[in-house]
Amino acid sequence: MTDIILPPKKNIILDATLLSLLMSCPRLLDLKHTRSFTSTRGKSNSLEAGSLVHKVLEVYYKHMIGGFKRDTSIGHGMAAGMLYINGCPHCSDITVDNPECKHEPGEYPGVQMPSENDKHILGWQWVLKTCEQYFDFYKNDAWIPLFVETVKGKVLYEDDEIRVLWKAKFDLGIDTNQIGVCSVDHKTFKQRRDKTSLSNQFLGQCSILESRNVIVNKIGFQTTLDVKDRFTREIVSYSADRLNEWQTEILPYYAYKYIQFTETEYWPPNFTHCDNIYGSCEFKDVCQSNRNMRQEVLNNEFQIGRRWDVTNRVGDE
Question: Do 101 and 114 form a contact (C-beta atoms < 8 A)?
Fold first, then answer.
């Protein structure tokens, strides 16, 4: 009897950003991440501010894990914030490999932010002041930090044809002494928004850690609100059934879609996501152009940036 030789399984690697773009607009996924187009205008002010806060908290919690005293850890975090603003002279140019620099390429690139707030534009002085207020507000923090800015991966789905590896980047992992080990996601914002459990990021983090909870560490930049209203920590919880549905039905469905788009090299647009509460899609002009003009629009308004990787740091609005 002749043995049946089955074709090898297709390995798919997804993360929250890729899956969310796949759900919203495959063309945006192709342009932004498959082809690595990035706007020549650079980061938005909100993203710059979010990245700065992430850097300060990253260094602070790393030093806390390393056994440093709290005041020392705060000092190192704030110093890292200033270095992030000014830019490291050795690694600010991510295209140059400087052996003299002890940082990762582009880790301290310098920011395009004014020193003071100007209407709807955040200044770096206020962002750092917000970090100082955060440390003072949580001076009696009972969290036990376990890992910081860590990427973890786990196979979350497998059948006869595909294997889906999910990768997630964790801002912070903690032991709360109440709900056990869970992830913390730092969310910076200018306007208060309600939390939501409809998040591929949170579902994926819970699936990897085998946890039911994610803590959203909200940090507000509003100058008109009291500190207690700008700093909140909200728990997003999931049932076992919702996690199982996401892992065994939703995730494989879109993994097969991803294979289809990749193999056909056709990434269809979704015109229902061109405008949202944050504004218009950055590639809206591309989609509004004739097919023979789209490449010219891309060449004029965008440049090829770093290839997408889950380890890239992105601040949150």
Answer: no
Size (the chain), residues: 317
Show me where the domains of the chain are located: 15-22+38-248
- Name residues whose C-beta falls within 8 Å of residue 212's C-beta, 6 or more positions apart in sequence: 179, 206, 237, 238, 239, 240, 243
Q: How far apart are CA 249 and CA 289, in angstroms?
A: 36
What average pLDDT does this structure show over 143-153? 95
SS3 content of the chain, % helix, strand, coil (to 5): 40, 20, 40
- Report the C-alpha gap between 24 and 5 in whole angstroms: 37
Three-state DSSP at 64 gives helix
In angstroms, how far is CA 165 from the centroid of its own chain? Answer: 18
Strands 162-175 and 181-189: antiparallel
Dihedral, CA atoms, 280, 281, 287, 292, nearest 10 degrees?
120
Q: What DSSP state is assigned to residue 238?
A: -
Cβ atoms of 252 and 159 within 8 Å: the answer is: yes
E strands, 79-212, in order: 144-158, 162-175, 181-189
Q: In whole angstroms, how far apart are CA 163 and each of 5, 243, 246, 310?
A: 18, 18, 15, 19
- Are 81 and 50 contacting, i.e. CB atoms less than 8 angstroms apart? no
20-76 pLDDT, tens per residue?
A: 999 999 999 999 988 989 887 777 888 899 999 999 999 999 999 999 999 999 999
The torsion angles phi and psi of 146, rounded to 5 degrees, stand at -115, -40
pTM: 0.86
Q: Which two structure tokens, joined as six digits, stand for 29?
A: 């996924």
Token pair listed for 20: 């969310």
Dihedrals phi, psi of 291, to nearest 5 degrees = -55, -40
